[in-house]
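Table S2 (continued). Query chain:
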Amino acid sequence: MASDYVLGTHQSELERLRFQHELWSPISEAAWTRAGIQSGQRVLDLGAGPGFAAADLAARVGATGRVLGLELSADYAAEAQALAQRNGLPQLEVREHDLLKDPWPDEHFDLAWCRWLAMFLPDLKPLLAGLERCLPIGAQLLVHEYVHWDTFALHPQAEAVARFGQACQQSFRAAGGDPDVNRRLPSLLSARGWQIEELLPLPVLGSQGSMAAQWMERFVAVYGLQLQRLGLWSTADQSEALEQIQAAASDPGSFWVGPTVLELRARRLVP
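Corresponding output:
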C-alpha cells in the first residue's frame, strides 16, 4: 500500500469525505445498531480517515468506552485527533498506522469496524492476522466493502460516466487493490474459523438533486482529476462525463446508482 491514498488527501477530497459521511451516517448507524455497539464498549476503527465515523462511534460508546482509530495518512490522523479534541471525546484516539507494516495494538476490542479499507490492500493476510490479534473469541468484525463496483452508473446511458467507473476500478487494481473485495472476504474469514453472521447488500441510488446523486457527481469531479494525474483519464473524457451529468440534470427521470456495498458481520469463534 502506498504511503498515501489512491484517492489523495487534498482539501477537495477532505470536503468530499465530509459530505460522504453525512450521506452514509444513517446507514452506518443502522449497521452499528445491528451489531449491538453500545455504551462502554471498545471499538477498533481501521482506516479511520479524518475521523468522522470514529467520532460518531466514540459518542455511541460514551465516556466509559474506547475507540481507537488506525489511519495510514498522517494528515488525516491529525485531523481526526483534532476533531476528537474539538468534540470533547477523550475516549477517541487516532494513531498514524500502516496496517501492513506496523505492529498492531497490544489490546483487545469488542468489535472492529472498517469501511472501504480492504479494497485498497494488496495483501489481506496482515489484516486478518491483525484482527485476530486484537479481537478475542466472541468479538465481532463489521465491514462495509464493495461487492459489485460495476453497478456505478448514471442512467439512462451516460456512457462517459460508465467509462469513468471502469477507469476508477483500473486505478484501484493498479495500486494493488480489489474494488470488489467483499466477494472474497466472507470465505477467507470462514476458512480461519470466523462465523459469518450477516451479509447485507447496501445499494445507494438517487434521482437528480438527492444526496446520493450529489455524492457521485462530486466523486466524478474530484477523482476525475486524480485519474488524469494517473494517466487513466483525459481532459476530454472528463469534459464528456461532466457534460453528460449536466444534461441529465434536465431529465427528471435520470438517476444515479452507486457501486454496491456489502455489509459483512462476522464473529471470531476459534483461536
